[in-house]
Predict the structure.
Amino acid sequence: MLVWSRAGRLLAWAAAGLLFALVYGLPIGVIALASFSGQWNDVLPSHPTLTHYVNALHGDSAEQAQVSIITGLAASAAALLCGSWAALALRHLARLPKRVLDVLFFVPSAVPSVSVGLGLLVAFSQPPVLLNGTRAIVLIAHFVLISAFTYGNVSAGLARLPPEFEQVAESLGARSFYRLRRVILPLVSPYLIAAFSLSFALSMGELGATVMIYPPGWVTLPVGIFSLSDRGAIFDASALTMILALATLAVLIGLSRISSRAAVR
Amino acid sequence: MTAEIATASEARPALSAAAAPRFSGAHVSGIGFKEVTVAYGGLVVLDALTLEVKPGEIVALIGPSGSGKTTALRAVAGFVRPSFGRITIGDRDVTDVAPHARNIGMVVQNYALFPHMRAEENVAFGLRARGASQAVVRERVPECLRLVGMEAYAKRYPRELSGGQQQRVAIARALAIRPQVLLLDEPLSALDAQIRRSMLDELARLHRDLPSLTVLYVTHDQTEALTLADHIGIMRDGKLVAFGASRSLYRHPPNRFSAEFLGRANLLPVTSLEPADGGLAKVRFGDTALMATNPHDLPQGSDCLLCVRPHELRLREDVGGANALTGIVESVQWQGDAHGIVLDVHGHRLRLTSAPLGEPPEQGTKLALAFEPGHVSLVPETKGG
Amino acid sequence: MADLSVASSPAGARLPSGVWVASPLVVLAALFFYPLSLILRQALFGEEDAFTLSHFGEVIGSRLFLDGLHHTLVIAVSATAGCLLLGFILSLIIAFVPFPGARLVGRLIDTFIALPTFLVALAFTFIYGSSGLLNESLIRLFDLSLPPVDFLYSQWGVILSEVTVYTPFVMRPLLAAFSLIESAQIEVASSLGARPLRIICQIILPAALPALIAGGSLCLLLTVNEFGIVLFIGAKDVITLPLLVYDKAIQEFDYTTACVIAVVNVALSLGLYSLYRLAVAHLAGSRAGLV
């Protein structure tokens, strides 16, 4: 407690409330408002309508949502496997190689997504592997971009795990695979779930790399939203953004429920 | 792969011993340290430790933090690798054996109960990990929980148990695999004073019930060590500075550090030792002649330290007589069940504890003190010891 | 048998971790480092397969590239400064003037991290656009003929959007650092007569400095790499390096130029990333020092 007087506290809260509302409430509010509006010529929009949502749930947009979800799930699952694998394998390495590899696994998160897209475009448009124009290249791009976050999340979880758990398990006669399955994975499961949901959210919102490499017929939601807003269909774009945000949040909240249940147990 | 064979051959007999009376002497084995040295990056944390824990014995390693006592225990468990020396459990050299194949039970300071498992699942963990049959698990788990008085809490998760209860489950978990030796690493230090006292009694009872269990007990608390251990090793700076039967180590400490660390001792510098009959010796403290036991056979004429435990000092009515000293009262503390008095005896500070006094002395009073020659001992004065 | 096990078990325990780590490393090499190396190759060899620095020279000397670099840096630095200021104020209130629901607000801001960045850019066109909420209101209120607020399609629009999006990245480490400050310290300081501003300057700010550095360098990295916001705002004269890469490769099919710019951009990002790692390592070190 920093401010003791009641008036001071109220003032601080009011200022904070205003800031929050202005910085975070307002953008989400106007997107929500726009997604329901037929016209916006006045200060506030008029002619409330559900047309944009109806549009969003049919045709191209529905397909894009499907593409995004499939890509997100597949890339996150692959990233979860690879990231956890890397984090677990690194655990018992000596200090120096561990630090070097740790940096290597984190690097993809530091490189601009557009450059990752460009690299994949250049690399897989020539032999030995031709993937340009396939769906796989979108998956690969998403996987590369989110794998670092999965790795980071899982290794943070492992670092927080007191070494005694594994040592006691080992002294009781448990071999490494048994320890992994019965002790380590259950104990880091909240981090695995968090890693998965963060990767899924990042994949759902990915634009930079996707826009470089997506093949026709495999358009993700963000790319679709961009082309809508580029064409001037900003209300439709808003509705689609709302759907994207809500779908992401629903997955996040659902998974965090599961993870908190796992943590309590 | 070969490690697998080793576990199989070591662990199976332990499991099939289920038919025998519980914890029979089937695999009574001791622990042997032979010049075990552990160094981290040039820093020697355990320096050529040689020590034997006999089968069925409790040995306590005590010492200040950083003295290497926990390292010694972890070396037995297999979590630190000695850079030199051998470790044996029973007649088997385990120096290069993986921890999971050593057949030891370990209880750590914060218990490390698996939070996602119920108490009974925790206890069953080691059995299941070793591939014990369901029948063995069903028999052994309740048996071990009963042994520590936790059978009513089998279905609880660790977070639903108090510190002392978690401790008991951790012990049951370690005992369930019928370990050859039990390693206890500061097992009571996370408990508050009252529970610590009762857990100490519990551990003593447990060892009475399982007299063949070999225990290595690491602690920094001398009461725990004196209460439980048959032998005590005192560690300092990675070295074992004293080792012996608890009672004789307390009564006849071999050096200054042991005298001060195991029970706070008064140490008086004395000179001109003259051996006398009955293991006694005569020494001079300033002008005063004193008699004390000479357990370490210090030679004639040597200078040494006289170790007088605070409770061995008596207040006397009259001045003079054998083994008599006079001191001036510096301070008096009432401690409830005892009085503590600090005295200045010819420039040396002596602590005395006695049963509560009806009329405690005033500060500045001159008091006469005495002690039995058989209850005090001479300690060699060595630099750094 | 026991002797056999003695000899081989430690070696057997150590070998696998090296083998295990190989598989994710191979995946990473094939899907990330290999493409990245080809960008460098194309930047140095062009389409003709002959080593030359002329592509680099041409691109780096060009007006377009220098403007892009300039914009990227100005936007990143300003946005980071904004994030630090806003993040510090918001975290301060959440942590030290707690109100009912403060934790919820903290978590809401946290989930903001997961939302696509262009959401904010899109929203800002509704709020600050020429016929957006703010301008319409002002026009009606003061009976103006032209929209008075016109910053959205400049770099300020991008900066403001990025501040909104990336402030949570500063707040995360800050809130963690604040939670480590003992409330007793602040209470003692208050009881000794220190006013809030003094407490902030003398107790909170020094304790939060490593977190500010870590959060700030992360922000710098993310804002240099930001693409969606710049693309959505689509201001003609606000072109950053990632947008330039996109324009060159996708609009003009000039892969060599795109690769040269990407190399510079990646190098810049990796430099900032090392800065971030150093800051975090320092943060961990100073924390360990405190314990």
